[in-house]
Design brief:
Mean pLDDT: 94
Low-confidence stretches: none
Structural class: alpha/beta
Largest sheet: 6 strands, mixed
Shape: elongated
Strand order of the largest sheet: 2-1-3-8-7-6
Helix content: 25-40%
Length: about 425
């Protein structure tokens, strides 16, 4: 009989993680996925490629958690020892798993590479293991269950293998062992700081146990994560939707730009595609960052026409038609120049919408009137042009100013588009 799993630990294996040579994204991914299964992650840790320390950490983790998930150490080389140490901890012998060996041999044959003898190591499994065949690499994943019903899942380290393996095979393996599910909604807010958002939300909403409402601050926006726990997904969704409805009745409401969207650019591209409309960009201080973020969205080719990075003053005139005398009179960082950049880009690229930025990202530049952190954002449609003076703290670094300026520019386009029918 399967024991119910509610408490998990994640143990990532690899000296390269401890040395900072590789950024550990696996722990974040696994925590998010486990949360949707109603499994709480109580600890995350990293251990190097050391047999004694790995064995000690596995024993301690299994003593505290119902589920332990490892990443890494399933490869063919001598320092890949996760399976072997797990077999020792569980008191199991290693044996050759013939289906895995056949799959590895087919992989090497298909790629025209020679299979060296040490690759057989990847097909060696502890007795009693549940094997998850890897369609994305050579190292199969596996799970072991001890006499107490504690589960150890071992996954390969590369995210391109770990993520689809977990989603397609490990989740269905764990699902019957879960007593409840978690479901989250994400409310995306721009124009209010984290402290301001928290101050206007009802205290009972923030202090609620189910659902929970937690604010998170990222560059340029605040995200409210609303999470509910229930016996099934539909019930958890209903609890979340009720909380989101309450949030929409607070002073936060005018600043909500989306629910459950991956990013502002995804929301903008989605709305443009829905409307059959196009967008162009004209960037100075953001240096192409807006265009980059828009084109990062899958399917953006249906909406993004093109863009211009007019970093120097004369290119604003040459490429976008901004009058030189206007720049001379108003200054290159001004509302009038931003507006002309947006109009010029919309006409040049024959787009329905254009986004423009001009400002001082620092560390140099800026004036007493327009200090570092000042960015003018313009969005032009066929019938309207909006301009906003955005100010980031001059104490922030150049990368931050450019990032939040790009975020605000994309959101301004989203707001204007929402008003255009």
């Amino acid at each position: 009989m399967n024991q119910t799993i509610s408490r998990a630990e994640i143990l990532c294996v690899g000296t390269e993680l401890l040395m900072g040579d590789i950024v550990n994204t696996n722990a974040a991914y696994l925590s998010r996925r486990l949360a949707t299964l109603g499994i709480g992650v109580y600890r995350q840790s990293v251990v190097g490629d050391n047999r004694a320390r790995l064995a000690e950490d596995l024993r301690v983790a299994l003593s505290r958690a119902d589920l332990v998930i490892t990443s890494g150490g399933l490869g063919p080389t001598a320092d890949d020892m996760t399976k072997e140490v797990a077999a020792e901890v569980f008191g199991r012998k290693m044996h050759l798993h013939e289906p895995s060996l056949a799959r590895i041999e087919r992989y090497f044959a298909a790629t025209g590479r020679e299979m060296t003898p040490n690759n057989r190591k990847q097909a060696m499994m502890p007795e009693g293991a549940t094997v998850f065949q890897n369609d994305y690499g050579t190292a199969p994943a596996l799970a072991l269950t001890n006499e107490e019903g504690k589960v150890l899942v071992m996954l390969p380290g590369p995210p391109r293998e770990l993520e689809p393996l977990f989603c397609e095979q490990v989740e269905p393996f764990l699902q019957p062992r879960c007593a409840a599910v978690l479901f989250s909604r994400n409310v995306h807010i721009c124009g209010m700081g984290e402290s301001a958002v928290e101050s206007v939300l009802p205290r009972e909403l923030l202090d609620g146990a189910n659902p929970t409402v937690a604010p998170y601050c990222v560059a340029g926006e605040v995200r409210l994560r609303v999470t509910a726990k229930a016996a099934d997904k539909e019930s958890a969704m209903a609890l979340c939707d009720k909380a989101v409805a309450r949030i929409r009745k607070t002073p936060v409401s005018p600043y909500i730009y989306a629910i459950d969207t991956p990013s502002p650019e995804a929301a903008l591209i989605g709305l443009l595609r829905e409307r059959g409309m196009t967008v162009a960009t004209a960037e100075s201080c953001t240096g192409g960052l807006i265009a980059k973020r828009l084109t990062d969205v899958a399917g953006s080719s249906a909406a993004v026409v093109g863009g211009a990075v007019t970093y120097q003053t004369h290119t604003k005139t040459q490429l976008l038609g901004v009058p030189a005398d206007l720049i001379e009179e108003k200054g290159v960082v001004s509302a009038d120049v931003a507006a002309q950049m947006a109009r010029g880009a919309r006409e040049k690229f024959d787009a329905d919408l254009a986004i423009a930025t001009t400002g001082y990202a620092g560390p140099g530049g800026g004036t007493d009137k327009e200090p570092v952190g000042t960015v003018y954002i313009a969005v032009a449609s066929k019938t309207r042009c909006t301009v906003r003076r955005f100010s980031a703290s001059p104490l922030r670094d150049r990368a931050y100013i450019r990032t939040v300026a790009a975020t605000n520019a994309i959101l301004d386009a989203l707001h204007l588009l929402s008003d255009v029918q």
